[in-house]
Design brief:
The complex is a heterodimer of chains A (361) and B (241). By secondary structure, chain A is mostly helical. Chain A has helices spanning 11-46, 49-75, 82-97, 100-106, 121-143, 149-168, 170-173, 188-207, 209-219, 221-226, 231-257, 267-280, 285-306, 322-337, 348-360; strands at residues 310-311, 314-315. In chain A, 73% of the residues lie in helices and 1% in strands. Chain B has 10 helices and 10 strands. In chain B, the strands form 2 sheets. A 6-stranded mixed β-sheet of chain B has the order 6-7-8-3-9-10, sandwiched between helices. In chain B, strands 2-1-4-5 form a 4-stranded antiparallel β-sheet, with helices on one face.
Chain lengths: 361, 241
């Protein structure tokens, strides 16, 4: 207990330590995205078109949920506004990249010369992300000053504001009607690439010094302040990163579906993705991935029996709305019996290495 | 190192601090004692930036740190522990210490290079639990972890708010040895608040006694205990008065 502290790690060792941590975190992210890759490849090679389409939707949800985890999992503040950023990303590329002929039909009176502007999909995506970043930085300035319930309510207000703008600024967003004609340039392979990138990014952030300090500040604001941690700055940082990932999800959605409308980016998406994150466990990126896989499969199964099926000669009645009920039940049961979600406190790679170490003994 | 001059603070109608002053040099262990409600914790909060004093000044190494907030004070070199333990319960023991070390690397890189996270864990007998969540440690280990975490900040002033509370005699003796080790190895100024007077007397070079928001006596430990005002506070009204 009382040896001198003088002689410590020499300078090279001190540099090597963070690099080793970075590698571990990177590998961890890749391990976590492995199940996603496997599912994606199976669908890509064997599944009929209908399932490919479903999978694309599930991948969009995956990116949204991972984005949600970046903020919620690290700051421990519930976010009910993230689908606003999904919508902003989607509408951003819709307005920028839709061919002029289509725009003449849909938004002929768009302001700022958008009616006569058509950019390639990549530049459109980058500009849309910048727009999302700006909205996130402004809203994040407010949210990062708050904590707990107040921050959650502000995030909800943001959702309602953005949704109202989509609905009522008809010259630019085409209002309640579907915005169609967006170039369909994204398929399953690109979706998989971005999913992996996003999962690794979320993991790197979580394990970074910012992620660690943010998680600490969420657990004891007083102690983290006494260690010189600027929690506001870190909350803002994770809010913007989370928003950019959600915006990316929106961009990818617009580029694969080709048609979007405001209601896609409203409460239904919030509930779906929140249920996925809670079920999987919001403390880890693995939890986000697990929740999306389990609930996507589960909801699809429920949807298939919703319309009434025949099991062993017995015709079940139609149970419309069953998936909505199931979603609510999942959240309630999870909160009651396993608030930390399926995956709990450990990432997939951490669980694996614990498992192997125990078996090795 | 630390100099607190005429700090006053009023909460509503209650004057928690009345022109309290104290000083603590590098390498010195100062005991801050007094009955409940004397203003010890308020003074610690004023030094660590949690409270902004109404009047008076707090300087660390000549630098004014009064009322700049806890983050600023921590970066300036004030580390503290809490009366009720405040660990990051779901983070591992090592991560608790790392969190502090990250700040140290940012603001005092030379100090950070001298401090090894693993070494701190070993010194405070926590190396066997490095990868378990801090919340699962025993009470005594949690107290040690709080001190290790504070030291990872590379402080020039360490404030220990009732570090021996709830420890048995053996544990508080180990703790006293550890705190003396800090003096020798880190050389920071240390202020210890505690109600365990045997612990305080064994450890402290000087004492500072507070009562009703005022510093009523300060000086060498043996001298302070001869002060009639201190005797009055601790033993009650003496019969001769």
């Amino acid at each position: 207990m009382s040896q001198a502290i003088e002689e410590t790690a020499s300078a090279p060792a001190a540099v090597a330590q963070p690099r080793a941590a970075l590698t571990r975190s990177l590998i961890g992210g890749l391990v976590t995205s492995l199940p996603v890759l496997v599912v994606g490849l199976l669908i890509l090679n064997f599944a009929p078109t209908y399932y490919t389409y479903l999978a694309l939707g599930a991948f969009v949800n995956l990116i949204v949920v991972v984005g949600l985890q970046v903020f919620m999992g690290n700051s421990n503040i519930a976010n009910l506004g993230h689908s606003a950023f999904v919508g902003l990303g989607a509408y951003g590329v819709a307005i920028l990249s839709t061919p002029l002929a289509m725009k003449k039909l849909s938004i002929p009176h768009a302001p700022f010369g958008f009616a006569t502007l058509q950019l390639d999909p990549v530049s459109s995506a980058l500009i849309a992300l910048i727009a999302v970043g700006i909205v996130a930085a402004v809203s994040g300035k407010v949210i990062s000053r708050l904590s707990g319930v107040a921050a959650t309510i502000v995030s909800l207000a943001l959702l309602i504001i953005v949704h109202s703008v989509f609905l009522n600024w008809t010259d630019l967003f085409k209002g309640n009607q579907a915005f169609f004609g967006i170039p369909k340039v994204v398929g399953l392979p690109w979706m998989m690439v971005f999913s992996v990138v996003v999962i690794v990014l979320a993991r790197l952030f979580k394990d970074s010094r910012w992620g660690l300090q943010l998680r600490a500040s969420a657990q004891s604001p007083q102690a983290s302040a006494a260690l010189g941690i600027d929690a506001k700055k870190l909350r803002l940082m994770s809010w913007v990163l989370s928003a950019l990932i959600c915006g990316l999800a929106g961009i990818l959605y617009a580029y694969f579906a080709g048609t979007i409308s405001p209601k896609l980016f409203y409460f239904q998406m919030i509930f779906n993705t929140l249920a996925m994150l809670i079920l999987g466990g919001m403390a880890t990126v693995t939890g986000a991935v697990t929740g999306v896989i389990v609930l996507s499969v589960g909801l699809e199964f429920i949807r298939s029996i919703e319309s009434g099926v025949t099991i062993a000669g017995i015709q079940l009645p139609q149970l419309l709305g069953l998936s909505g009920v199931a979603l609510g039940v999942v959240i309630v049961l999870c909160m009651a019996f396993r608030p930390s979600g399926i995956s709990g406190r450990y990432e997939l790679d951490e669980l694996l290495s614990r498992f192997f170490r125990r078996n090795a003994k | 190192m630390l100099s607190v001059e005429a700090v006053s603070k009023t909460f509503g109608g209650v004057q928690a601090l009345r022109s309290a002053s104290l000083a603590c040099e590098a390498g010195e262990i100062l005991g801050l004692i007094g009955p409940n409600g004397a203003g010890k914790s308020t003074l610690v909060n004023a030094i660590s930036g949690v409270l902004k004093p109404d009047t008076g000044s707090v300087r660390l190494g000549g630098k004014e740190i009064t009322g700049h907030g806890p983050e600023y004070c921590a970066r300036a070199g004030v580390a503290r522990t809490f009366q009720t333990i405040r660990l990051f319960k779901d983070l591992t023991v090592r991560q608790n210490v790392e969190v502090a070390h990250i700040t140290c690397q940012a603001v005092r890189p030379e100090a950070a290079a001298r401090i090894g996270v693993d070494q701190l864990l070993a010194q405070y007998q926590l190396d066997g639990f490095a990868d378990v969540p801090a919340g699962t440690l025993s009470y005594g280990s949690q107290r040690r972890l709080e001190i290790a975490r504070a030291l990872a900040l590379g402080p020039s002033l360490l404030l220990l708010d009732e570090p021996a509370a709830g420890l048995n005699e053996g544990e508080s003796e180990t703790l006293a040895v550890a705190i003396e080790g800090i003096r020798r190895d880190v050389g920071c100024a240390t202020i210890v608040i505690d109600h365990d007077l045997r612990f305080i007397n064994r450890l402290c070079d000087r004492l500072c006694v507070m009562d009703q928001g005022q510093v009523i006596a300060s000086g060498q430990t043996e001298m302070v205990w001869r002060d009639p005002r201190v005797i009055e506070v601790y033993v009650g009204q003496s019969e001769t008065s």
